[in-house]
Amino acid sequence: MSSFLNVLPYFPEVLRGPLEKIAPERQDTIQELRLRALRPIQVVCGKDTYLLEKDGGLGHRSGIVISRLMLDAVFQNICEHSIHSYQQEIQQGYVTIAGGNRVGLCGSAVIGNGKIEMLRYISGMNVRIAREVRGCAESLAGQVFSDGLCGLLVAGPPSSGKTTILRDLCRILGRKYRISVMDERGELAAMQRGESPFDLGEQTDVFDGFPKAEGIAVAVRVMSPEVLLCDEIGGAEETEALLPVLHTGVHLIASVHAGSIAELYARPQVKRLLEANAFSYAVMLGTGSDCGQVRTIRCVGHPI
Questions:
Q1: CA 164, CA 162: separation in Å to the nearest integer?
Q2: Which listed site, 32, 69, 82, 162, has its alpha carbon 20 to 30 Å from 284?
Q3: What would you report as the CA-atom Rg of the chain, rounded to the nearest whole angstrom?
């Protein structure tokens, strides 16, 4: 089942019916479904944004307006009608659903002890469609790992295909090397009952739902990985956990939000990893119609 089809059961019939009618060739290009209360649902395909019509057509003039009841139905479904069980994810502004698809949430924050405890009065959602694009990282892997393993940082703005590239790198490298994946958000591997719907390589182990800092310590201790692969690094705690690992011969492959190489050095925790020679190369990805395309490969390693 495709990732787009995986999201359909979470929608009420009034939305699911028109979504099912979208032409299959169009379904394959959909990156996001944006739902906002009392506004038309938007379908994002690369640089283009369309409005969904009742017959499954995609246009620009009119579309199905999202009622509060529709929005609440989707919210209840992604939380499996147990919002309390998903409180930790909701606090961070997203819920990962079947197929590795991720639902971003907007609403009114409930604050306690200076932290977000819950969101209420959900006003908007962004359903991001996960992709398995087999072969999308073949060229990159051939250029970066031609002489063996090294550290790689995959950078790009939101929706630039970082997770998709990491997923395919797992598949390619996991055929030869032991990889431990830190999948804190459950988006990269999309584990369900201990199994991933994606091909992540024969020697890949997934630490699903582990906070990165704790997962890194456990992985190095019990799985002896040759590669640690992390999606979206940048926190101080995980940086502190990664630094000692760099001296054990484990190679780090990670992604980070950034619009340029200069932005990498402007982020303190990423800069610390760069200065510690965690990465030999940094890759910048494009967005829109260039989503998942490598724009530049920059050598960032320094001789010791």
A1: 5
A2: 32
A3: 20
